[in-house]
């Protein structure tokens, strides 16, 4: 790269151009260059071309530096419009051609962004942002313009069939269908199932011969180990007898003391079952219907007992069975009781007959009682006769 000769150096090569004098300086430079070009001899033409190229490169580099240093420069305008500038500074307004600092530009962008956000917040939202929207709330055919994600109900493919892997022990576990009638009862079947569950027996029964062979092999290997080893190897552990207690878990985990019997822990319903009538009630708790129900039940039991007794008595009379003295007395007493109830006979009491009447008052009082009893019996007989007459007359009525 060739250096520029001192003959062609200008003012702009040493100082930055002023904003107001840019256009004028550029025009003056062109005129001066043209004048100098006319006065120079022809022998320096090639040198001038090289110098011009160097000037262009330097001008480009300087313009880049000038653009970076624009923000740091302070310009002064000493024209007649200084009064207007002072007024603009006092009011806070800026000239249209004045450069702004980086902070002012950031503030303007931030204010514009805030205004845009406030405007979008106050405006009506599109239907895509309104949540669940029906066809009436969105424009017609607007759903066709959107890219939506939804599930498709796809028909299931045919399940691939695989050949089942048959194992030897699977055949033994299968239940064989027997069409013959079972010789076991249902209780015996349930008993066998219960025993299988409690005793935890394996479904595959072990072969007896296999077990015997295994036992012989274990004893043989034990002897061979003793011969081939310098140290004694103990016998392998044999499974101990397992005790199975067929008790419910609640009895195993009960917190009650041992000395308390099960009878004391029973509930009242477990001791005595409830009757069909309901809970046992006292005399004061019974209502009128309860009392009538109990009375009917007692009369029914008594009636059945009397019927059974009468049927037994008729059987004995047909068989002509001889009765004992006590049975005869009971029979006679029963007849007397029936006659007195029906009013056909009256039982006379022997109270005071054995006693000697020491006064006339006692004699006449006893006589009066006897007369009253006779009169009472006569009245009862007359009433019964009248009753029979009325009944007979009523039968004749049509």
TrEMBL record:
It is found in: Nucleus, Nucleolus. Belongs to the MPP10 family. Residues 1-105, 269-308, 378-398 are annotated as: Disordered. Keywords: Nucleus, Ribonucleoprotein, Ribosome biogenesis, rRNA processing. Residues 27-58 have a biased composition (Acidic residues). Residues 293-308 have a biased composition (Basic residues). Residues 13-24, 95-105, 269-292 have a biased composition (Basic and acidic residues). It comes from the Eukaryota. Its main location: nucleus. GO terms for biological process: rRNA processing. GO terms for cellular component: Mpp10 complex; small-subunit processome; sno(s)RNA-containing ribonucleoprotein complex. This is Uncharacterized protein.
């Amino acid at each position: 790269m060739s250096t520029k000769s001192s003959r062609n150096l200008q003012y702009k090569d040493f100082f930055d151009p002023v904003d107001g004098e840019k256009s004028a300086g550029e025009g003056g430079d062109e005129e001066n260059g043209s004048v100098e070009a006319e006065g120079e001899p022809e022998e320096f033409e090639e040198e001038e071309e090289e110098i011009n190229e160097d000037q262009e490169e330097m001008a480009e580099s300087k313009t880049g530096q000038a653009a970076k240093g624009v923000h740091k420069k302070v310009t002064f305008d000493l024209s007649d419009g200084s009064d207007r500038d002072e007024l603009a500074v006092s009011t806070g307004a800026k000239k249209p051609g004045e450069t702004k600092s980086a902070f002012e530009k950031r503030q303007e962008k931030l204010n514009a962004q805030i205004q845009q956000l406030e405007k979008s917040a106050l405006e009506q939202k599109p239907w895509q942002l309104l949540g669940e929207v029906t066809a009436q709330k969105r424009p017609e055919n607007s759903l066709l313009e959107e890219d939506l994600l939804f599930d498709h109900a796809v028909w299931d493919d045919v399940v691939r069939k695989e050949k089942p892997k048959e194992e030897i022990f699977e055949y033994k576990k299968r239940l064989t269908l027997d069409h013959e009638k079972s010789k076991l009862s249902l209780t015996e079947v349930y008993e066998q199932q219960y025993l299988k569950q409690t005793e935890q027996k394996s479904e595959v029964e072990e072969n007896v011969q296999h077990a015997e062979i295994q036992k012989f092999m274990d004893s043989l290997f034990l002897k061979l180990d003793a011969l081939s080893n310098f140290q004694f190897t103990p016998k392998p552990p044999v499974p101990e007898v397992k005790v199975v207690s067929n008790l419910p878990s609640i009895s195993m985990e009960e917190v009650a003391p041992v000395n308390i019997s099960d009878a004391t822990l029973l509930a009242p319903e477990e001791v005595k079952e409830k009757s069909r009538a309901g809970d046992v009630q006292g005399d004061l708790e019974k209502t009128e219907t309860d009392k009538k129900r109990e009375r009917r039940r007692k009369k029914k039991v008594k009636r059945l007992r009397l019927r059974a007794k009468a049927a037994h008595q008729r059987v004995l009379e047909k068989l002509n069975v001889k009765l004992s003295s006590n049975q005869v007395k009971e029979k006679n007493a029963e007849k007397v009781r029936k006659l007195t109830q029906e009013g056909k006979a009256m039982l006379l009491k022997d109270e005071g007959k054995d006693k000697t009447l020491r006064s006339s008052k006692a004699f006449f009082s006893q006589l009066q009682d006897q007369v009253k009893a006779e009169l009472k019996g006569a009245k009862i007989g007359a009433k019964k006769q009248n009753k029979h007459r009325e009944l007979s007359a009523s039968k004749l009525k049509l």
